[in-house]
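Attaching the record inline, Q. Sequence:
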Amino acid sequence: MTTPSVCPDAGERTDLLAALAEARAALTGSVRGLTDEQAGRTPTVSSLCLGGLVKHVTAMEEGWLNFATEGPSAMSFALPEGVTWDDLMAGTAREFPTWMTDREKEFRMLPGETVTGILQAYEQVAARSEKIILTVPDLSASHPLPEAPWNEPGGAWSVRRVLTHVIAETSQHAGHADILREALDGRTAT
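Structure, as predicted:
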């Protein structure tokens, strides 16, 4: 008779998923009860809106979990022909990469987008992430970071490090969302 194998880090996975669920709840709580128009408003001097924050966190989580399973090819920061990082960072690039313009759209509610649709997309990404985290063979498995000025040259991140980054980013944006919600109607989610 064989004993079923138990994942040696099941408790760690459960704890990490619980921390992520808590951060997600704080973020999504900030848009509950808002109209689509309210979720698209920018009530502070920044250009952030609540719907855009949820969209950004959705894309960020999906991108990092893709990296955790596929490696650096899942996060390409390719530049257009003849454009350098120095040009891009100085704002003098003659052309911007698609990934950069796509990222800018993440922070806004675009025509036709709804709070319901944005939350559904986030729930789908969250469900996929949880499945990955529960089934990936080893949280210590790592991939080299893609080349970009904000990444440590030659650096590598483990699945565990990716997950802690997603938790930190989600928590940070949940705090931003509280400020935006309070500016809209005086309520906070946390």
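The chain has a mean pLDDT of 90. Strands lie at 142-144, 156-158.

More tomorrow.
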